[in-house]
Design goal:
mainly alpha
Length: 255
């Protein structure tokens, strides 16, 4: 499959991965409550962060849609990006004498690595983990699914499922906020966003069977890049307290 098939991201699923893995795995290794909260929040955001390259895809699509569909899963999905986040925030933590920033950077880097690991095994597409080595022809992008040629309908259905993944992520954040009694002002907005995303998923799933590829791509990625991608980062930032409370809750589950 070409990189043009690589645009499916399931951003909400990456967010859920950050919440669930962070709660049940990462927390046990950090004794400091402040460190645990920063690590978990960074891990959730890091799981979302690589797919900001969607903005480049949407911006380039009207100019050259072939080039645009090759912009996803490059530098932002690489070990270099993860390392740069860790090292940059480690230096910032030293300069500012704030170890919390160090934990945040560590969480962000781990989140980016968790993101591209999931992409490698699930999304039937190449992931440029060793960028920029691929640019110089040294190490090619990893593509475990090069042997598989999915019919176009599969790609469209997976694209529609982007919004189902968003809905699941928002529903889980709202459920946690109710459970922890945090970010009460964001519970209704998160629930409304989940409802909107379920409706869009249903509509796009139906359209996937009836409209041609270029039109479906526009219906999917233009609102994704302009509205729904920025929204997921906004809601995640507004619900930081809920995610940080999950760090304490996960710690309490340990024997």
């Amino acid at each position: 499959m070409g990189r043009g098939d690589a645009s499916v991201a399931q951003v909400g699923l990456h967010g859920l991965t950050g919440l669930l893995v962070g709660e049940h795995l990462l927390n046990r290794y950090v004794a400091s409550p402040v460190g645990r909260r920063a690590l978990l929040y960074g891990f959730v955001v890091g799981n979302l962060l690589p797919d900001l390259d969607y903005l480049a895809v949407v911006g380039m699509y009207p100019v050259n849609h072939t080039v645009a569909m090759h912009l996803h899963r490059g530098f932002s999905h690489s070990l270099l990006a993860a390392t740069a986040l860790m090292v940059g925030l480690f230096i910032a933590a030293l300069l500012m004498a704030d170890p919390q920033i160090q934990y945040l950077g560590f969480g962000l880097g781990l989140g980016v690595m968790a993101h591209f690991t999931l992409d490698i095994f699930i999304w039937f597409s190449p992931v440029d983990v060793f960028w920029p080595a691929s640019v110089f022809g040294i190490i090619p992008p990893i593509n475990l699914w090069a042997w598989l040629e999915n019919p176009p309908l599969v790609g469209r259905l997976l694209g529609a499922a982007e919004f189902a993944a968003f809905a699941l992520y928002y529903e889980h954040l709202a459920k946690l906020a109710v459970q922890f009694d945090t970010n009460r002002e964001m519970i209704k907005p998160a629930q409304r966003m989940a409802t909107v995303c379920w409706l869009i998923w249903g509509g796009l799933t139906a359209l996937a069977f009836d409209i041609p590829e270029p039109t479906f791509t526009l219906y999917l990625y233009v609102p994704m890049g302009i509205v729904f991608m920025p929204a997921v980062f906004y809601i995640t930032a507004r619900m930081e307290s809920t995610i940080e409370m999950l760090a304490d809750y996960g710690q309490s589950l340990e024997p």
